UniProtKB/TrEMBL annotation:
This is Transcriptional regulator. PROSITE patterns: HTH_HXLR. The keyword Nucleotide-binding does not apply. It holds the Pfam family HxlR.
Length: 123
């Protein structure tokens, strides 16, 4: 089993939030499930820039943290649906604020990101 060299410090509220939302796709996964996307295959179709393996790993992490619940239906093929737990629902205002901030600052961040890339290419 992997053991981190530097222990986690979860004394800071921001660190706790980053533990939950820190994966590249976790906020998108939570937001999609909040909008009604429940099955992993639906998430794979919706978040096309993410590799399905990564989405599945982050679904498992969010479930282990108690942010998501999972319902498994019997039968073949196996059917799995995810839902937000009360903890998951409680993080929605944070995700909505992130979405609002990102929409308000998209043009500036894209411009600065493009400038950074062009500077790197000059070296």
């Amino acid at each position: 089993m992997y053991e981190k060299k530097i222990p986690e410090n979860l004394d800071c509220g921001v660190s706790v939030a980053i533990k939950v939302l820190g994966g590249k796709w976790k906020a998108c996964i939570i937001e999609s499930i909040h909008r009604g996307v429940q099955r992993p295959s639906e998430l794979h179709r919706e978040i096309t820039t993410a590799v399905p393996r990564v989405i599945n790993m982050q679904l498992n992490e969010l479930e282990a943290l108690g942010v998501l619940g999972k319902k498994v239906y019997p039968g073949l093929p196996l059917k799995v649906e995810y839902f937000l737990t009360p903890l998951g629902l409680s993080i929605m205002p944070v995700i909505e604020a992130m979405d609002r901030w990102g929409n308000e600052n998209r043009d500036y961040v894209v411009k600065m990101s493009d400038a950074m890339l062009s500077e790197q290419e000059d070296f």
